Amino acid sequence: MNSKMSDRRGFLKRSAALAGLAAFANGKALASVTDGMIKGEADTKLGVTPDEPNINDLLYGGRSRYETTIRIPTIGASVNTGLRNLTPLQDSIGIITPSSYHYLVQHDMHIMNIDPRKHTLIIHGMVERPMVFTMEEIKRLPSVSRVHFLECTGNSGLAHYKSLLADIKKGRTDVTVIQGVHGRLSNSEWTGVPLSLLLKEVGVQEGATWLVAEGGDDCHHAKSIPVAKAMDDIIVAYGQNGEALRREQGYPLRLLVPGFQGVCSVKCLSSIKLVDKPYNLQREITFYTNLKPNGMASRYESQVGPKSLITFPSDAHKLLGRGFYEISGVAWCGRGAISRVEVSTDNGRSWKDASLQQPVFRKAWTRFRLGWNWDGTETVIMSRCTNEYGEIQSSMRELAKLWGDDVTPHIPAEEIEHWWASADISEFLNNPIQPWKIKPDGSVQDAIYNTLLPNPYFPV
Ligand SMILES: Nc1nc2c(c(=O)[nH]1)N[C@H]1C(S)=C(S)[C@@H](COP(=O)(O)O)O[C@H]1N2
Ligand SMILES: [Mo]
Description:
Elements: H1 3-34, H2 40-45, E1 72-73, E2 83-86, E3 104-106, E4 120-125, E5 131-134, H3 135-140, E6 144-151, H4 158-169, H5 177-180, E7 185-194, H6 195-202, E8 210-215, E9 222-226, H7 227-232, E10 235-240, E11 243-244, E12 254-256, E13 269-275, H8 282-285, E14 290-291, E15 297-298, E16 307-312, E17 323-332, E18 338-344, E19 352-353, E20 355-356, E21 366-374, E22 379-387, H9 396-403, E23 436-438, E24 444-446, H10 449-452
Parallel strand pairs: 4-13
Antiparallel strand pairs: 1-2, 2-3, 4-5, 6-7, 7-10, 8-9, 8-13, 10-11, 10-12, 14-15, 16-17, 17-21, 18-19, 18-22, 20-21, 22-23, 23-24
The structure holds ligand MTE and molybdenum atom.
The ligand Nc1nc2c(c(=O)[nH]1)N[C@H]1C(S)=C(S)[C@@H](COP(=O)(O)O)O[C@H]1N2 binds next to strand 3.
């Protein structure tokens, strides 16, 4: 067991002790309800061992105590500007992120607990008939269930590499690149009413080309969204992975804007106002924009580009030695379906097609798999994907060039593994190829600097 692992265990033991206390309190509260159903003596008669879940645990299922993966809290210093918890992508299986692992980005320190009987959604502004919907009214309407990824605009951004490094320097041991840098990303089945249907109910006036969606949470998160997107595929969602939305995901109602940066998917949705222009709101002007070298900032760039990530092996893992491994990961794109994923096990020199898990959904994770025989020598593995329109995922260097960014790592060659400390690359909607270096001892490291430096296999 490496030191990362043993420290994680220590942390989990401490939190398990706290969880035990909570369960005890709960058990007391429920005692009157279950009184007579199970008593201490009955337990022994039934041959129930201490490891057996008690009746209260069975009311809402829990996982095996041998499963210890957690959504780690945010990395980096800015912890008091909001709540962040990151999806453990290194342990992802298939294409659905269990709701308990769904990442969380909340722009204040409070997760609402809204009473659905009191919650309403108002649709107003440039409409023929302004309307207020209760949750019951929304749930009567024709619904859809669709699988879609959700990804924060800042996911995979350079700032997270920097934060990760700072945290590690301070002694934090539970962070990895796969979770810390890329973990603002999840994939769920969402259920709700198409926004287009609600908009037909209220009657959108001519000239209303944008809408402003607002949340009923403390920070009143709000976002301008084109009406054309609403008419296409936005869902007013109340369901997530076969049950109600989780509190952290905006219970009881949220927007789910497929393929667009996460900031658009307004949680605790309480108001939609039809307007004739984008409203230049705080999170459209002061955040989530990329400042370009010419002093101009790009705004309202919303669609996530083709992106893929090898989740196993990644820097949270250690290989057992030479021999067979299944390389596996996820690919997604804000536009259309993934049509191809290629994997290189020789630092980009050659590429092989991975198999894609069926069915492939649009604007959703597609799991890919490729069998690999590792010969035990040092190498770099990576994946790149292509969508149904032929758009292909690029290296960090290619992207930086495309965006007009400075890719020069202004640091000495011997510190090159920490190139992100000085390179100046756009932060948002980053979709570079993520290479992992496999060391002869089986340990795995982030190697994105490989794709930043001139590389004969990545023509720029
Ligand atoms: N009401 C509200 N909606 C919100 C936010 C928020 O803080 N409040 N954060 C936004 C951001 S930046 C992202 S990335 C996603 C995160 O959704 P999640 O927390 O369900 O993962 O919600 C968006 N919607
Ligand atoms: Mo976000």
